[in-house]
Write a structure and sequence with these properties.
Elements: E1 4-8, H1 13-24, E2 28-33, H2 36-50, E3 56-60, H3 61-67, E4 70-73, H4 80-86, E5 96-99, E6 104-106, E7 112-115, H5 123-130, E8 136-139, H6 146-150, E9 157-163, H7 166-177, E10 182-186, H8 193-210
Parallel strand pairs: 1-2, 1-4, 2-3, 4-5, 5-8, 9-10
Antiparallel strand pairs: 6-7, 8-9
Helix pairs in contact: 1-2, 4-5
Amino acid sequence: MSRRIGILGGTGPEGSGLAARWAAAGEHVVIGSRDAQRAAETAKLLRARLGGSAKIEGTDNASAVAQCEVIVLTVPFSGHAALMKQLKLLWKSGQIVIDTTVPLAASVGGAPSRMLGVWQGSAAQQTRDLVPASVAVAAAFHNLSSELLSQDGPVDCDILVCSDDENARQIASELATKIPGARPLNGGKLENARIVESLTALLIGLNARYKVHTAGIRFTGLPLK
């Protein structure tokens, strides 16, 4: 299937890591950013790293939404609502939004590890409120370390996918399988995203206590696919 995947906030560690993994798997990736030039430079660096056949380009966030069928949100929660409101008139019926956002705040001088309350229940549910009903929303990739994504080789992580739309869940799960070592799991309805998002705060604490940057999650006792 021919499609373009737009990654908003794609110049950051998580966004660029997902972009590299999916482009390496043959997907056509469009990195979006507030700064189109910065997005273009990130895309150029990733193409050089992956080789000339990699289909990856950079533009501003609005242009990425306008040209892509699948949109992945990798923006900080502090700018999440403002960006979604800026994009309000650009969404097209049938698009799929995959939200990776985690509502975290930092203590003074510390890492962002404290969960923030979201009126809708989760960042993904906030997205659901801010896009048209004709746009499907899934929550996924919250617990996949950007450090793991930036490395070569397989990751060691399950990807929980939450959505009220079966097609959005299927697309997000398919993109998870494009990352070697990742296993998508059906996380249930979109309302469960609040639980999945909170696991990120736990993983950040584990990384700090064990002095690593690659802690992930695995669920046992499930059928392997």
